[in-house]
Amino acid sequence: QVQLVESGGGLAQAGGSLRLSCAASTRTFSTYSIGWFRQAPGQEREFVGAPTWEGTTTYYSDSVKGRFNISRDNAKNTVYLKMNNLTLEDTAVYYCAAQRFSAGIVYDDPHEYNYWGRGTQVTVSS
After folding, report:
1. How many CB atoms lie within 10 A of CB 2?
2. Is the CA virtual torsion 21, 26, 27, 29 positive or negative?
3. Nearest to 9, CA basis, from 120, 116, 89, 125
C-alpha cells in the first residue's frame, strides 16, 4: 500500500510559478513510478508528466512541455512538479499517482497507476 499526499497548490497569477510536492509513504519508493495528472472541471484526467526509472528522461504532455519540470528525491520519498509560466488553462486539480516500475510500463495512462493522492487545487488568475 502506498499513500500519496500532494501539497503546494494554491492561487497563482498567469505567468507565475508554483511548485507542487508529492510525498509517498512507502519503504520501497524507488521502485515506483510517480506520475502527475490533472483534472479541470468537466474534463477527463490528463497526463502531465512522469520521469522514467533511470531518471534520465521525463515524459511531459505537449501542453506543459517546456514550462513544467518534474524531479524526484528518493531520499525524501518525494516528487516535485515545478510549474512555470502558468496559464489560465493550467487551472485544475493536480494529482500524483504511483505504479511499480516494470518492463513495458506505460506512463501516460491513468488506468496504469494503482495509487493516487487526493489532489491539490491550482488556480491561475489573469
Report:
1. 19
2. negative
3. 120
Segment 35-61, tens digit of pLDDT: 999 999 999 999 999 988 777 789 999
C-alpha cell belonging to residue 125: 488568475
Residues 6+ positions from 125 with CB-CB distance below 8 Å: 11, 12, 13, 14, 88
pLDDT score of 39? 98
By CB neighbour count within 10 A (0-12 exposed, 13-18 middle, 19+ buried), where does 48 fall?
buried
Query: Could you please report the per-residue DSSP string of 81-105?
Result: EEE-S--GGG-EEEEEEEEE--TT-
| Per-residue cell: 111 | 488506468
Nine cell digits for residue 71: 524531479
